C-alpha cells in the first residue's frame, strides 16, 4: 500500500455560503431574525437532529440585561435605535475601533499578557456579543467586544471594550466550527462546543489595623495615636478561568456587513487550516506505529500498527474525526484495531466493513457528550 502523505488540502470542506451583504443599515437583534431563521431551516435539517441538539432554534430576544457580563458595565450609548443615521453608526464604529486599538496596544506592550506574541491587528474584529442563558432561556447582551483569532493556538478570544480587561470568551477552535456556524447580513451564530472558559471571580475580604498595613516609620507620636485603633477593609479579587460544562450559543453582531464578511473570511480560513491539519494528523496514526496504552490511558511501553491496509478507509476515518489508539483492556488483551474520536472520545475496536458503518458505529457507541458529535455531519 502507498503510505505517502495525503494532501487533505485538495479535498472539499463543506461550508455554508454567506447571505447577501448589500444591507449596510443597523438592525436591532430582536426584530431582524426572520432571514436567519429561514437560512437555519434551509441549510440545517433540524428534523434530523436530536431535540437536545445545541443548535435548536430559539427566539432571539433579550428580555433584560440583569445577568450581562460580570465585567461589562452598561453603556447607555451602546444600543442604536431605529431610524439612526449612517453617520451615527460610523461614529460608533470609530469609537469602538479607538477602544479596541487601545486594548490591542495594552496587550502587545504588556510583557505578561497572554498570547501577546500572537495578537495581530489584521485579525482583530469589533462586534457586539450575545450569549444564550440556558438557565433562564433567553439571550443576554454582553456588550461590545474586540475579537482576536489566534493563529498559532487556533483559539478565539474576546475582550470587553469596557470594564475589566480580562478575556470574556476563550474558545478552542474546531475544524467543523465554520460549517456549523450560521450568518445573515450582520450576525453570525457559533457554538462553543463546550470548549469555552468562563471567568470565576473569587473575592477575599479581611479587616486589619491601619498601623499594620502602612509604613509608620515616618509618623510622629501624635499621628500614631490617631491611627492606633483605626481599622480598614482589605479586598482582594482573583479572576480564574474554568471550562464550561456544556456548549453555549454565541452571537457576534457586526454593525457593518463588510466587518462580518472580513471576520467570516478569517474564521473560515482558520477552520479550513485546522481541518487539513487534523485530517493529516489522524491519518498519520494509521500508517505509523502508535504507543499502546492501558485501559486507564497510561503507556505500557509497547507500540503497535493498525493491522489492516486500506488507505481509502484511513482517509474516511480521518475525515470523520477518528484516529488510531491501540490499548490493552482490563484483562491485558491487546485491542490492536481500536479507533477513537478526537472530539467526543467514542472508541471502537473492530473492522469497518464499509464507509457507511463509520457513522453508524459512531452513533451507536457515542455516549460521552449530551449532543451528537459534530464529526457525524462534517462530510
Describe the fold and architecture.
The chain folds into 3 domains: 11-196 and 245-277, PH-domain like (Roll), CATH 2.30.29.30; 202-238, no CATH class; 288-377, no CATH class. It has 8 helices and 16 strands. The chain has helices at residues 34-43, 86-109, 177-180, 210-213, 221-227, 257-287, 311-319, 356-365, and strands at 124-133, 138-150, 155-160, 167-172, 182-183, 187-191, 197-209, 231-243, 249-253, 290-294, 299-304, 322-324, 327-328, 334-335, 338-341, 347-349. Helix 6 (257-287) packs antiparallel against helix 7 (311-319). The two termini are 25 Å apart.
Short description:
The chain has helices spanning 34-43, 86-109, 177-180, 210-213, 221-227, 257-287, 311-319, 356-365; strands at 124-133, 138-150, 155-160, 167-172, 182-183, 187-191, 197-209, 231-243, 249-253, 290-294, 299-304, 322-324, 327-328, 334-335, 338-341, 347-349. With 379 residues, the chain is α+β, with helices and mostly antiparallel strands. Strand 13 and strand 14 form a beta hairpin.
Give the topology.
Elements: H1 34-43, H2 86-109, E1 124-133, E2 138-150, E3 155-160, E4 167-172, H3 177-180, E5 182-183, E6 187-191, E7 197-209, H4 210-213, H5 221-227, E8 231-243, E9 249-253, H6 257-287, E10 290-294, E11 299-304, H7 311-319, E12 322-324, E13 327-328, E14 334-335, E15 338-341, E16 347-349, H8 356-365
